Every structure is written in structure tokens, then in C-alpha cells.
Amino acid sequence: MVWMPPSAQWRVLRRVCATKVFSSQKLDSTQTIRQNKVQELVNHVGECCKKGEALDIGEAVFTRVLNSISNTFFSMDLGHYKASDKAQEFKHIIRAMMEEVGRPNVVDFFPIFGLLDPQRVRARMKGYAGKLIEFLDGIIDERLRLGASEIMESKGCNDVLDSLIQLMMEENSQVSRPHLLHLFLVSICLGFST
């Protein structure tokens, strides 16, 4: 969306982001989640200190940030240390993308090599993005299969996915499933880049 030229689709996505994803009301409603994740980090550090165990602070912070983002978007923790295969897969994809972005790339210094992709960075990132989209598509499938309307009523429409599914299900909606997938992809990447 960031690189799209202004068009009707761009305006729709911009409005959705402004009202459903990054609105001050939506961000304020997730303040409790963020506070809980910070408290979990403090508790985890305290437990490691009491036990005299070594603490990988990078891993601990990464896990808490991942859980904060995944709770905001999907109302589930995807970054537990001893998590399910699904959560481990998500964590692996995000970590691999972060490592790829942080790695020096010849193309950054010599843009003329951009089309050649000599270090295969673009190819690997495209693969990771594809895996992440498949993963997100699975979460959307699961939420739709469980019945989005029942979940929204029971939770009061707390997470971003519920809000976007509700918007997508409206009659004459301009928001489609590919829009949801790409909004989540961009939002997750932005969440980890800040």
C-alpha cells in the first residue's frame, strides 16, 4: 500500500488502515495487551534471575513483541517459548525475514545489480512473504470456519481480524480477502521494523 499510486483501491486500503487498524481508538483498546506483555517480560526476567539462568534478552523481547502484535491482530499468542508447531512456524518466518533485512546486501551499494539479485535476497524474501501469506490465510480460514459473527459477539469485536472480517462481509464491501492478507503482511512487517 505504501508504494501504490493513489487510486480507488489505495483509498479503500488507506481508509481501512485509518479506521480499523491504526486508529487511536483501536490502539487505545489494545493498551492492556501491551501492558500485559511488558509485565510478562519483567516476570520472565525476574524468574531467570531467581533461578540463576542465562537470559537471552533479544529472544525474550522478540517473543513479547511477537505476542503483542499477534494478540492485537488475532487474539492469540504466537511467540511462546514452548509453542505449537503453528506458532513456531510463524516465529521462524518473522525471524528469518528480520535477519534477511538486517543482512548487508550488495544491491544496496550497487543498485545496478538489482535485477540480477546476486545474493538471492529478493528471492528469499519473496519466499518468506509467500509463507507468511499462507500462514495468515490459514488463520483467516480458521476464523471464518469457526464463525466470525459468533466470535465477534462473544468477544465484542476486540481484535483487528474480527473488525476486518466484519468489514469484508458487509454487502457491497470494497475490501476483499487479498486485501486482508496484504494488510496483515504489511502491518506485521511494519510492527517489527519499528
TrEMBL record:
SUPFAM superfamilies under this entry? Cytochrome P450
In terms of superkingdom, the source organism counts as Eukaryota
Q: Which residues form a coiled coil?
A: none
Please give the Gene Ontology molecular function terms for this protein. heme binding; iron ion binding; monooxygenase activity; oxidoreductase activity, acting on paired donors, with incorporation or reduction of molecular oxygen
InterPro entries (alphabetical): Cyt_P450, Cyt_P450_sf
Per the record, the similarity remark reads: Belongs to the cytochrome P450 family.
Q: What is this protein called?
A: Geraniol 8-hydroxylase-like
